[in-house]
Write a structure and sequence with these properties.
Elements (H helix, E strand, L loop, with lengths): L9 H7 L2 H13 L13 H28 L2 H10 L1
Length: about 80
């Protein structure tokens, strides 16, 4: 199936021969009717600071502390823990 356009021309014809074109076409034709439309969220600064920032901050602290623990453990102990778990 070749699609030509006055605007796209040869570029659009080359794009139609690419494998991702069939995947995109398949998604738009087969799955698009079942996709749900989600209303955009009005993200205020208050919502961002009270809901997003604490999660990101605590996750960063968790990574920091878990990586710091590796500095004080021996390699043999780490290997034993991995083998046991």
């Amino acid at each position: 199936m070749q699609v030509t356009s006055r605007v796209g021309g040869a570029w659009l014809q080359r794009l139609n021969n690419h494998p991702s074109t069939s995947v995109t076409f398949s998604f738009n034709v087969k799955l698009r009717p079942y996709a749900q439309v989600v209303k955009p969220i009005n993200m205020t600064r208050e919502i961002y600071v009270t809901r997003i920032v604490p999660v990101g901050g605590l996750f960063a602290v968790s990574l920091w502390l878990s990586n710091t623990a590796y500095l004080y453990l021996s390699v043999a102990f780490i290997q034993m823990v991995k083998a046991g778990g």
